[in-house]
């Protein structure tokens, strides 16, 4: 068997299912001139949206009428404005016949939920050929540390809170975009709200820190030591530009 | 498979080599086949403390480089049947060691011994890193003073993050604290950190407290591991520490100021 024969037997294709986000243009009434005009206005608002955008032309919501639908003309208008018709959605037999005549796939009327797209809205809408990214969760999971944080180590909870259930040695550094909780003796540095969150707070079961900082406003051990709450369970928050230490 | 112990501290001069020699000898005394490996390439001391300096022919670096076999390089102790020493090279530096080379030697030693005691150099650089990298357990030697405690804390952080066990996500290295050069009198006077202070800061299991003792210096100079001096307080304290390392419950001794007898007080005698 020659090499060419072997190649012939190799699979040429693979079928895959995929979900695509596609723009559907639902026609409420049949008027080619008005469609042309209104599309032109939309294009002026969001030129990026209309550049070879795949489109499903939905005819199923059109009111019944005697007038014959010129599907080719409709598609031409869409094309002129950067919308490429992939298929039509239709239930009317005349419409289905028109689509078949143009060799265009016909989709059944949709029962699924669809949202109204505003092409002028954010970035995600600009590329409807890609599925929209899932919404970012508002809170990143809290980072929990159970072993001692030793001198020279640095722990950063990006985008969230940090909880340490063990001792934090002097020379260790805790950083968090959110709050910091330390349930062991706290002898290191704690910097909460490092990205500037003024509402971040620090909670210590035993305050012995080298430095505490919230959104860049800090106190070092020399100041902290003078505090009557040194060594106690405290809660630190920002009031104005000052770190406020209160008993827990 | 042998258990690999590293004796480490971060800070220099706290008693790592004395401890390595004492613990290794103690393990051998209790019938375990033990080898003590000197990782302090360029500043070798272990052979002196073990009293085998005149018998060093091949060393650790020779074995790593394949210039000698382990059998050629291992020095058998004259006092104990199942105790061996692998000396460091005096003419090379720490860059002579590689992870692969050390791994090969550790593997070979593991097959032939019950305990491999690694005497780490001071610092947190390559030599110290390689000494602890393959360890199963660590003895962190600390003096009761703030700088030594801080360095030990740093070392504990490295043990928890930079060892092979940490990198491969295995069980963490078992950490033991050994407090050396402890002087209860100075602790009472407030000149030295107490056992409780150090334990609280480092928060690891205390395996022993070795009192500051003339016996240690004497033993070092004679090339006899201090644990063999069973009349001395330091020797006894090391002996207790080895028992604890092997899982025995032994009460801590030498933590309190020894009351001076009437005659001693009268004549101001010193021990």
Automatic annotation (TrEMBL), chain B:
SUPFAM superfamilies per UniProt: P-loop containing nucleoside triphosphate hydrolases
Domain CobQ/CobB/MinD/ParA nucleotide binding positions: 5-226
Keywords for the protein's UniProt record, in alphabetical order: ATP-binding, Cell cycle, Cell division, Nucleotide-binding, Septation
Entry GO CC: cytoplasmic side of plasma membrane; cytosol
Binding locations of ATP: 11-18
Extent of the signal sequence: none
InterPro entries the record matches: CobQ/CobB/MinD/ParA_Nub-bd_dom, MinD, MinD_FleN, P-loop_NTPase, ParA/MinD_ATPase
GO MF term set: ATP binding; ATP hydrolysis activity
A Pfam entry, by short name: CbiA
Keyword Cytoplasm set for record: no
GO biological process, one term: division septum assembly
Protein family according to the UniProt entry: Belongs to the ParA family. MinD subfamily.
NCBIfam families cross-referenced by the UniProt entry: minD_bact (TIGR01968)
Subunit structure and binding partners: Interacts with MinC and FtsZ.
Job of this protein: ATPase required for the correct placement of the division site. Cell division inhibitors MinC and MinD act in concert to form an inhibitor capable of blocking formation of the polar Z ring septums. Rapidly oscillates between the poles of the cell to destabilize FtsZ filaments that have formed before they mature into polar Z rings.
Record protein name field: Septum site-determining protein MinD
Organism: Pseudomonas marincola
């Amino acid at each position: 068997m020659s090499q060419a024969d072997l190649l012939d037997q190799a699979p040429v294709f693979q079928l895959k299912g995929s979900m695509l986000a596609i723009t559907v243009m639902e026609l409420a009434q049949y008027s080619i001139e008005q469609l042309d005009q209104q599309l032109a206005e939309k294009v002026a608002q969001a030129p990026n949206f209309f550049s070879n955008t795949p489109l499903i032309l939905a005819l199923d919501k059109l009111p019944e009428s005697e007038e014959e639908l010129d599907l080719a003309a409709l598609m031409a208008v869409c094309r002129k404005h950067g919308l490429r018709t992939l298929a039509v959605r239709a239930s009317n037999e005349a419409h289905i016949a028109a689509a078949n005549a143009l060799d265009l796939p016909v989709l059944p009327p949709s029962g699924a939920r669809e949202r109204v797209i505003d092409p002028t809205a954010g970035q995600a809408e600009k590329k409807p050929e890609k599925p929209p990214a899932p919404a970012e969760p508002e809170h990143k999971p809290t980072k929990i540390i159970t072993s001692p944080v030793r001198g020279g180590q640095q722990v950063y909870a990006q985008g969230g809170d940090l909880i340490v259930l063990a001792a934090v040695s002097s020379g260790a550094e805790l950083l968090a975009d959110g709050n910091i909780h330390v349930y062991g003796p706290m002898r290191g540095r704690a910097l909460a709200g490092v990205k500037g969150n003024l509402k971040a707070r620090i909670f210590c079961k035993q305050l012995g820190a080298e430095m505490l900082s919230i959104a860049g406003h800090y106190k070092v051990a020399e100041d902290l030591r003078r505090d009557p709450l040194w060594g106690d369970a405290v809660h630190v928050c920002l009031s104005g530009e000052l770190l406020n230490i209160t008993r827990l | 498979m042998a258990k690999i112990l590293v004796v480490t501290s971060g800070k220099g001069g706290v008693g790592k080599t004395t401890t390595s020699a004492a613990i290794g000898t103690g393990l051998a005394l209790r019938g375990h086949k033990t080898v003590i490996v000197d990782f302090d390439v360029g500043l070798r001391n272990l052979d002196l403390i073990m009293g085998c300096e005149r018998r060093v022919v091949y060393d650790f670096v020779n074995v790593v480089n394949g210039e000698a076999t382990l059998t050629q390089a291992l020095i058998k102790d004259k006092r104990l049947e199942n105790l061996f020493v692998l000396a460091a090279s005096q003419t090379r530096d720490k860059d002579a060691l590689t992870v692969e080379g050390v791994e090969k030697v550790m593997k070979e030693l593991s097959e032939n011994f019950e305990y491999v005691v690694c005497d780490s150099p001071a610092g947190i650089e390559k030599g110290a890193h390689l000494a602890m990298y393959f360890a199963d357990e660590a003895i962190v030697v600390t003096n009761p003073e703030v700088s030594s405690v801080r360095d030990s804390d740093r070392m504990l952080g490295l043990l928890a993050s930079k060892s092979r066990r940490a990198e491969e996500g295995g069980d963490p290295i078992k950490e033991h604290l050994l407090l050396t050069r402890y002087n209860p009198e100075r602790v009472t006077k407030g000149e030295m950190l107490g056992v409780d202070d150090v334990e609280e800061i480092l928060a690891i299991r205390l395996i022993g407290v070795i009192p500051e003792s003339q016996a240690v210096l004497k033993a070092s100079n004679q090339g006899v591991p201090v644990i063999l001096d069973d009349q001395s307080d330091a020797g006894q304290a090391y002996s207790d520490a080895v028992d604890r390392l092997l899982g025995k419950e032994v009460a801590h001794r030498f933590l309190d100021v020894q009351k001076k007898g009437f005659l001693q007080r009268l004549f101001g005698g010193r021990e």
